[in-house]
Amino acid sequence: MAEGSLINEELRKMIGVPSEPIVFKIEEGAIQRYAQAIGDPNPLFNDIENAGKNKHGRLICPPGFTGWPMKGGISFIQLVESLVKAGAPPRLLDGGVEFEFLEPIGAGDVLTATTKIANMVERETKMGKTMFTKVETTFLNQNGDVALKSWSTMIQF
Amino acid sequence: MSKQLYYEDVQAGAEITPLAKIATTRMLVQWAGASGDFNPLHYEDDFAKAMGVGAPIVHGALKRAWLGQLMTDWIGEKGVLKKLSCQYRGMDYPRKMQTIEEAHEGETWWCKGTVTKKYDEGGEHLVECVIWVENGKGEKTTPGAAIVALPSKDDK
Lengths: 157, 156
Description:
The structure holds 2 protein chains of 2 kinds.
Chain A: H1 9-12, E1 22-25, H2 28-38, H3 43-46, H4 76-85, E2 92-101, E3 110-125, E4 128-140, E5 146-156
Antiparallel strand pairs in A: 1-3, 2-5, 3-4, 4-5
Chain B: E1 19-21, H1 25-35, H2 45-50, H3 60-75, E2 80-87, E3 109-121, E4 124-134, E5 140-149
Antiparallel strand pairs in B: 1-3, 2-5, 3-4, 4-5
């Protein structure tokens, strides 16, 4: 194991395969609790009572609300487990994320999220042989528009 | 909320209004519940040690959310955040609790950023920035980037 590549044939086959779409509705209470957990008092994310009067007409999600590791309902734990089962190292760190925001996302919106592994690379780090997996998720809104794209990097070692 | 920022107000090299943040173990529990990230790496000592980080660490996604706040505070209600990215390079450790509500004294983090360029594209006034979270020692544990669209004073 120490000599060979971490990324075996079974792992390679998982690249690019889209997940089953996950559909979920954005709840205003969840948005508010998320904003509170950030410590972000912005009324756009907190003021349920007056949300109808803002320019979006509804409570808006702080950036990243639907992203890794959360509301997408995408089970990253499941994804990680399937990677480990296929031979990836078991220890996991969140490497980082990139978001492209295309449409506002807010309370009452219904999103459909599809996830796929965009790529896998292997590098030697201070943790030893380390695998970097980039996971791409596309979120469509109820109008069929792409509202958000995200790319998360999982680090396994 | 601060007053509206306009495209004309920013130039390359300009500083984004910094945002101070603290993280406590209590806040990490709150974040776990709100974000759905229940990884014990963020609340269990033995597990964090076994994972090689020494002690429970601040969620990368919480630091990312701080950077989101840095940007949405700065651009104001008429600004639009188009892109946000960051990398979780360094571990950050929360302040421990002294009472149910109050944490011990400890580290304060600063979210900061600088404008790198501005340009018009596709009818939008875009501004690119480098952003980061800095720990109490001044180390950038969470570097990132953002692109925003700002209103122009000429649009009115």
